[in-house]
Design brief:
By secondary structure, the chain is of the alpha/beta class. It folds into 2 domains: 5-144, HUPs (Rossmann fold, 3-Layer(aba) Sandwich); 157-278, 3-Layer(aba) Sandwich (Rossmann fold). It has helices at 17-30, 55-86, 100-108, 130-137, 166-181, 204-213, 229-239, 262-270, and strands spanning 5-11, 33-39, 90-95, 112-115, 142-144, 157-161, 184-191, 219-225, 244-248, 251-254, 257-260, 275-278.
């Protein structure tokens, strides 16, 4: 079943035009409602805001309110025009001063989320580590879209990182609408990963290919002996001229810090193509 609602996060502090266009194209293809969440840069992230008080603070608050309103108006007009041009239903949301948990909830009520690339060390102006919170907190499939990735080029040639784990299985199921429409799909299994993130048997890659073929997926299998999973997946995607990489996300929370698996961190931090991940 195709998702019937897609949410795209638009951070004021970074480029979002191409991500928005890609989300609109997917929504039009799937006849889904497109939800845009405009994430305004909070006042606390503005330079020297912490040092202002009294009348100056009130003036700063008003300037901030006007700036956010103007920025929101401009992107909302583009969003609504884009929705009209594609004939899709659309919903606009403004997010101001929402904490990470509140932002994440926007994704929980949608079938798919599109977010900016992963930031291991976000700039102060960025509200949260957007990708991190949505991937690991929403329970929804998430696509990380590079800021400069061209609209109209996604999901035609797909590489699937496969290790028969629960996370990878979830990712394949979530990616099935893309896989079924793709021109070519390559399943990549990497054997003998030293840190134990991936186990390998000769048959499970073939089993997945048979499963996908029943859905009409044009799929091939590549088994790689040895090597680190993350770099291997990125190299396989490059050699395949892929425009999407599908994988399960591995990680756990240690106190207040998210600890990513090595393959997950490598792909999220270094991928130059869209990455669909599920947790």
């Amino acid at each position: 079943m195709l998702p019937k609602d897609i949410v795209v996060f638009l951070e004021e502090a970074r480029p979002y035009d191409r991500r928005l266009a890609i989300a609109a194209d997917i929504a039009a293809c799937w006849d889904a409602c497109l939800i845009a969440v405009f994430v305004a840069t909070p006042l606390r992230a503005m330079p020297h805001a912490y040092a202002v008080a009294g009348p100056a603070m009130r003036a700063l608050l008003e300037q901030h309110r006007v700036r956010v309103r103007d920025a929101e108006t401009q992107v909302r007009e583009r969003f609504e025009a884009m929705a009209r041009a594609r004939g899709i239903s659309a919903e606009w949301r403004l997010s101001e001063s929402e904490v990470a948990e509140e932002l994440m909830l926007h994704a929980r009520y949608a079938g798919l989320a599109l977010v900016p690339p992963f930031e291991s060390s976000p700039e102060p102006s960025m509200t949260v580590r957007m990708a991190e919170h949505v991937i690991f907190g929403s329970g929804r499939p998430t696509i990380l879209i590079p800021d400069e990735w061209p609209a109209g080029r996604i999901g035609r040639r797909i590489v699937v990182g496969w290790n028969a784990s629960r996370e990878a299985t979830r990712a394949v199921g979530d990616a099935l609408p893309f896989l079924a429409q793709a021109e070519a799909v390559k399943v990549v299994c990497v054997c003998d990963e030293p840190d134990g993130e991936l186990e390998c048997r000769e048959d499970f890659g073939a089993d997945l290919c048979r499963h996908l073929a029943r859905y009409g997926v044009q799929v091939t299998l590549e088994q790689v002996d040895g090597g680190k999973v993350g770099p291997v997946l990125l190299e396989q995607a490059r050699a395949f001229h892929a425009d999407m990489l599908v994988m399960g996300a591995y990680g756990h929370t240690r106190l207040t810090r998210l600890v990513l698996g090595s393959a997950t961190r490598t792909v999220l931090c270094q991928a130059s193509i869209p990455v669909l991940v599920s947790r």
